[in-house]
Amino acid sequence: MGGRDDELRLTLSLGLGVPTRPSFQPTHIHRPSHSMHNHIRNGSWNELFQFSDRNADSRSFLRGIDVNRLPTVVDGEEENGVSSPNSTVSSISGKRSEREAEAEAEAEAERASCSQGSDDEDGGGGDASRKKLRLSKEQSMVLEETFKEHNTLNPKQKLALARQLNLRPRQVEVWFQNRRARTKLKQTEVDCEYLKRCCENLTGENRRLQKEVQELRALKLSPQLYMHMNPPTTLTMCPQCERVAVSSSSSTTCHPAAAAGVQRPSMPIKPMGGGVAD
DNA sequence: CGCCATGATTAACTTACGTCA
DNA sequence: GATGACGTAAGTTAATCATGG
């Protein structure tokens, strides 16, 4: 499919003009949540993203189908703590806190977004056959922009965004979760491509060195020939790691990947869901 | 043209785990 | 240290859409 190809092309546009990391660090290691927060809020790699999005919104938008039906009452009740494990707020514990106030605000937002809601759901009988809603182009755009600024939301931001977009806070929350997952997946693809290139380069270098060893062995067996040849290899210190490096004609480093111009990419990625087209 | 099968995308969900009070 | 609340990542499910035959 065309969209897919576009995506991959974007994904694999490896670090042209993008600062590379000094050494390879898989970016998808599971971090403790707080370090993740810091990492994210410092805006390191996220700032590198180019948020322009492709098919998803243009799809629904261009076809003029507003699939973004407002949530049903059933969903709203879910958000109030009926079923969702992530957003359940215990009303039993008596301690009133800021958090509880926020939960109430969320419930309020629920009701608000539900009040204008549709009644097309089949009864809302609690069975909650999940109805998938498509976000409108505008909603996706705002979400993307917000994600660009910070890819996690605190409860207040979540509420504000939900109000602004006329969505349930839970929807905003889920959108950000999914968006982070997609971002990570993309970065994994980039990392994977980078490692593949490294591997290819190392394989080539290894092959070359083996060949050289063979030649040297052959020469050792015929010393009179050896006398008439230039030394095929000189040993120098690699400036990067201060080890003895093989320096044949081209390279004076023991980092063949670097010598071959392979640099680790750092997220030249465009988003997937609903952004601005470029 | 409509219909169906198939694959891609993504909203919504579940589970597991880490952190904090 | 045990516990509960909470947030997030990872994985899954299912709705929706595009495309090709």
Could you characterize what this model shows?
With 278 residues, this protein is mostly helical. It has one domain. Helix content is 50%, strand content 3%. The chain has ten helices and two strands. The protein has a two-stranded antiparallel ribbon. Helix 4 packs antiparallel against helix 5, helix 5 packs parallel to helix 7 and helix 7 crosses helix 8. The longest helix has 53 residues. The chain is rod-shaped, with a radius of gyration of 28 Å. It binds a DNA duplex (21 and 21 nucleotides) through helix 2, helix 3 and helix 8. InterPro entries: HD, HD-ZIP_Homeobox_LZ_Class_II, HD-ZIP_N, Homeobox_CS, Homeodomain-like_sf, Leu_zip_homeo. GO terms for molecular function: DNA-binding transcription factor activity, RNA polymerase II-specific; sequence-specific DNA binding.
Proportion of residues in β-strands: under 5%
Low-confidence stretches: 1-97, 115-128, 247-261, 267-278
Enumerate the strands of the largest sheet in spatial order, edge to edge or round the barrel.
Answer: 1-2
Per DSSP E runs of 2 or more residues, the count of β-strands stands at: 2
Number of domains: 1
Task: Indicate the percent of residues in helices.
Answer: 40-55%
Q: Give the ordered list of helices and strands.
A: HHHHHHHHHEEH
SSE-based structural type = mainly alpha
- Gross morphology is rod-shaped
> What's the pLDDT, averaged over the residues?
57
**Termini distance?**
19 Å
Number of helical stretches of at least 4 residues:
10
Region (Disordered): 76-131, 255-278
Domain Homeobox: 126-186
Biased composition (Low complexity): 83-93
Family: Belongs to the HD-ZIP homeobox family. Class II subfamily.
